[in-house]
Design a protein that fits this description.
about 280 residues, mainly alpha
Length: about 280
């Protein structure tokens, strides 16, 4: 066998192994999705959205308090995290530059926070908010989700704003526009699609988190909108129900998992569609 024939043989073997690994991964992925869809839709009914949690074996029982709590936590974190992330990303791109020590430090910290396990962030917020106060609360859960959301929005905003051509800024400045108007009316308009995609992906990320909420907002078996007290969330409820020995709770856990999966999938699809629309308009 010549050297060229050996290289062709090795290439075919590597391609065969890579294809087999990809097919194995796809098989398990479709298996998980199939089980989730089957058991989730089987357990899904109108009571899930209209009734609160009930003890095992008691009807009707639903997840209304968990859905409302989850919505409040995600909206609260988005209300704080999106403006902070966008403004910080704007500073990095428009004022900090690439050579500023402060800008480089913020970028490095953001990269570290994006790769930090969520349970570590939950433990951190527990130490500074839950332990001193003495009890879990919805605000602590919002703080934990905000800490996770800010670096994603920040880095996305920074990257998208840097893609806006400098000639647009120079043209606007040449026309006499002040710096803040250049940013708001020129730079933001050029990068709004990418920024919105990053925000949607960050919302999808925090909506599926369980670990930080176990340390902060914990859970609540009753309907509550008081953020100063423990509050129910869909992810923690799903974890508790899935690990319980009761069949009806396990079924509701599957329904909660399906609702979360559909929400995250919907956010990702919207983000992809926005990105594709922008490419199509170019």
């Amino acid at each position: 066998m010549t050297r060229q024939e050996r290289r062709i043989l090795v290439n075919k073997i590597i391609m065969l192994l890579s294809t087999a690994a990809a097919l194995a991964g796809m098989l398990f992925l479709f298996w998980i999705i199939g089980v989730l869809l089957y058991k989730g839709f089987t357990a899904l009914n109108l009571d899930i959205f209209t009734y609160d949690m009930a003890p095992p074996g008691r009807e009707p029982s639903g997840l209304r308090n968990a859905l409302v709590g989850q919505l409040m936590l995600v909206l609260g974190a988005s209300f704080i995290g999106v403006p902070v992330g966008v403004l910080a990303g704007t500073y990095l791109s428009e004022y900090g530059g690439k050579k500023s020590r402060l800008a480089r430090l913020i970028r490095d910290i953001s990269d570290i926070m994006m790769s930090t396990p969520s349970i570590v962030i939950g433990a951190f917020v527990y130490a500074i908010l839950v332990e001193p106060i003495g009890h879990f609360s919805g605000w602590a859960g919002i703080a934990a989700l905000t800490v996770m959301m800010v670096p994603i929005v920040l880095r996305t905003t920074d990257d998208m704003l840097q893609l806006v051509p400098g000639s647009l800024r120079e043209a606007a400045i040449a026309l006499g526009a002040p710096k803040y108007k250049v940013i708001i009316q020129v730079v933001y308009r050029g990068a709004k699609t990418g920024m919105l995609t990053g925000i949607l992906l960050s919302v999808a990320r925090i909506a599926g988190e369980t670990a930080p909420l176990l340390f902060t907002s914990f859970s609540n078996n009753f309907y509550s909108t008081d953020l100063t007290q423990p509050i129910a969330s869909l992810t923690v409820t799903m974890f508790n129900y899935a690990t319980s020995p009761y069949d009806d709770w396990i079924d509701q856990g599957w329904a909660a998992a399906l609702i979360l999966a559909l929400f995250v999938l919907g956010a990702n699809i919207i983000g992809r569609l926005i990105t594709r629309t922008k490419k199509g308009n170019r």
